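Quick review question:
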């Protein structure tokens, strides 16, 4: 199982924090560092903000040598497709071929309203996602692109420079509900299907639906990377773990009582002592998880990353 770190960048993560996280990922053996693409606190905490995801990734690309960098995920409502493709190609060039492109339809109405982004109905957002994924793929793989869609039009676009990776940086699509539209999009364009949360059986069922789309498109289902993003809180002892859980709870204004917060974490997250974390990771690996993104809420806690690298990653990483 390949192991990456995932950070919710909208919860007040500063540049200095990002540098420390990137250094830890490079030093400790994580495959990559990925971030959300939001502009203010999803947890609803006042006074927290976010750097721009792709601008930040470009800066980290220049400061790192090994780790892969990407978004989980960039809403198509934030950027025109050529802008997203250009940002990804730029990060890929700076990083010498380490960028990945996570794309989604967008979901958070308040964020759009506050920042002046049009928030369309579900079908409108899906239509834009379907067009954008195709355009981004074509811009990164074709010499010139013309496209006449319902929402986007391009006329003979010569998109240069191309990314370093060939045929292009990986495109990551996903979610929890894998209906016919998502299956088709995965089948045509996705290198990786990523889902979040869920028990091993639920995750396995989502993977099966994603592979159905790949098979329908005439591709080998085994070529699709299947991955999971879930939250991670680990301690050297149970007391150490519970101390970290309480710290994480205090960061979330809507977390509620400790016992409820703890019960939710225990359901489908990577939690507990290293031994418990390894056992849970192996359950997900058996369910088909080829890459896992550990969502690190306590982003200033480098010691927990060192614990993971010492006592967990060697038992599961490939």
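Suggested answer, residue by residue:
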């Amino acid at each position: 199982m390949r192991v990456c770190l995932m950070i919710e960048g909208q919860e007040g993560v500063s540049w200095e924090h990002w540098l420390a996280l990137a250094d830890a990922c490079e030093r400790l053996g994580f495959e990559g560092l990925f971030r959300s693409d939001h502009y203010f606190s999803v947890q609803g905490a006042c006074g927290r903000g976010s750097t721009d995801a792709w601008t930040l990734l470009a800066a980290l690309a220049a400061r790192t040598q090994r780790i892969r960098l990407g978004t989980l995920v960039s809403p198509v409502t934030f950027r025109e497709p050529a802008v997203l493709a250009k940002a990804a190609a730029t990060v890929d060039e700076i990083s010498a071929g380490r960028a990945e492109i996570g794309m989604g339809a967008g979901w958070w109405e308040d964020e759009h309203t506050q920042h002046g982004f049009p928030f369309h109905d579900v079908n409108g957002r899906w239509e834009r996602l379907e067009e954008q994924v195709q355009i981004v793929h074509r811009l990164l793989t074709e010499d010139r692109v013309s496209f006449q869609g319902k929402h986007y039009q391009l006329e003979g676009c010569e998109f240069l420079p191309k990314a370093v990776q060939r045929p292009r940086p990986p495109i990551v699509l996903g979610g929890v509900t894998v209906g016919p539209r998502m299956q088709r999009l995965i089948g045509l364009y996705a290198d990786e299907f990523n889902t979040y949360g869920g028990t091993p059986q639920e995750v396995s069922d989502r993977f099966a639906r994603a592979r159905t789309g790949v098979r329908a498109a005439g591709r080998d289902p085994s070529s699709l990377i299947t991955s999971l993003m879930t939250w991670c809180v680990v301690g050297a002892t149970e007391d150490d773990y519970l101390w970290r859980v309480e710290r994480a709870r205090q960061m979330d204004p809507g977390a509620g009582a400790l016992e409820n917060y703890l019960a939710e974490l225990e359901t489908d997250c990577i939690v507990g002592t290293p031994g418990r974390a390894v056992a849970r990771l192996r359950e997900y690996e058996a369910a088909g998880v080829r890459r896992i993104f550990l969502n690190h809420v306590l982003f200033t806690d480098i010691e927990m990353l060192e614990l993971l690298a010492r006592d967990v990653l060697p038992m599961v990483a490939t």
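Why it works: Residues 166 and 303 are 37 Å apart (CA to CA). The chain is about 45% helix and 20% strand.
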